[in-house]
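Dear Dr. V.,

Thank you for agreeing to look over these. As mentioned in my earlier message, I'm a first-year student in the group and I'm still getting used to reading structure tokens, so any feedback on how I've presented them would be very welcome. I ran two proteins. I've put each sequence directly above its structure. The first is here:
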Amino acid sequence: MELAADLEKKPESGLDEGIEKIQKLVAEIEKVIVGQSTLICRIVVALLADGHVLLEGVPGLAKTLLVSAMGAAIGGVFRRIQMVPDMLPSDLTGTYVYVGNRFKLQKGPLTDCHVALVDEINRAPAKTQAALLQAMQERQVTVMGKDTLELPDPFIVLATQNPVEQDGTYPLPEAQLDRFLFKVVVGYPSPGDEINILTNVHLDQRDKIKAVRQVLEPRDICQLRDRIKSEVSVEYYAHQYIVELVRATRFPGEFGLKSLEGRLKLGASPRATMALRDAARVEAFLHNRQHVYPEDIQAVARDVLRHRIFLEFSAEAEGLTVETVIQEILDGVHVP
């Protein structure tokens, strides 16, 4: 991946310190995560863009290990939450317990963590999903309709779902999918990477996270996030390109994409417009640029739009995929 390669280069402008911090973060994670450079970089971008990530892949691809390594490297509190069909909202937010003649607030796993791994997110019922949605969107949780608790900053949800096994799962509603900055499809490692996995001494240990050193503080992430917003500018032409890409998912005929007319059931929302801007700004920063260019927008477009475009049933039956739609939009919309 170009971004991973660029992070190893010596920065040339005044952004040296910030990029050096990210280099150290990526290096620590790569001690225990082999062959997933794209995934690591996407999660770093989401962390700096104050967004959440939906990870889709079969079991055994080190998704859980990656997220726990991220928490250890930034010095944040890490919580792993396994979703199950009988889970209640209080299992996430907390509840009241009767202790010493009075009710005492017992906080849930979301209330004090910086990095939340939500395993098999589509196994939880609608009520529990609603509690998670509040945490993702508003950065706060409400306990039993009474106390509202603010979540730490930074706070990122990294949710996994298995694309193969669908028994006992609940489809994620469009409104919740829209809260994820990225949907990243995690694939199998290459043969060379699998050999490196076998020869990695850290992965041969029972406690693999021991190898990961803390190189940042949570406040460093907040400072970097604010710095990116102030130092990386998004000019009018970039705004226009972002809006046109998103509008092409809603009205493809306006952009000459006749082959997509009548085949898209739902396009990307205005939240996708903001997600493209925020992610592209971080992408530009990590490439040591102080302005967002079209290539920065294109680099994040697939992961931003993948879960926000829904096809008509007839289009799916004909073999059309969301990936094909995004590629046609990127090829068809004029690049400024």
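The second protein is here, in the same arrangement:
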Amino acid sequence: MAAEGLISLQIHHQPKETMERVESAVSRRGLTIFARIDHAAGAAQVDQSLRPTELLIFGNAKGGTPVMKAAQTAGIDLPLKALVWQDANGVTWLSYNDPAWIAARHAAGPDAKAAIDAMTKLLQGIAAEVASEK
């Protein structure tokens, strides 16, 4: 299940509730939500089945621009994304790209360190909030 640069956390909520919690946590932090993509709904439109799988694309220019100034190709991995999915055992997961992996992948260098550290802290906070039992 482990993919390089991907952080996945088991969540004790159903997928739909988990995505609602992600969207709420992102909005509360004043970030822009660019898209919410329901991959399972897309699969159903072509008569295929897919367990719950939703992607939220979000961020802000203040956070991402320093990384792209350091390595413009990081724009392929930004804005940030959170994937909520359910495995074959019915377990819900929250996955996102590790910002340090994004920086290393694009050789962003020290000019991007503060932005990468801020993204890491942001994503960890969102994940902790989503995973909480509250």
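From my reading of the second output: The chain is about 45% helix and 25% strand. The CA atoms of residues 66 and 114 lie 9 Å apart. Does that match how you would interpret it?

Kind regards,
E.
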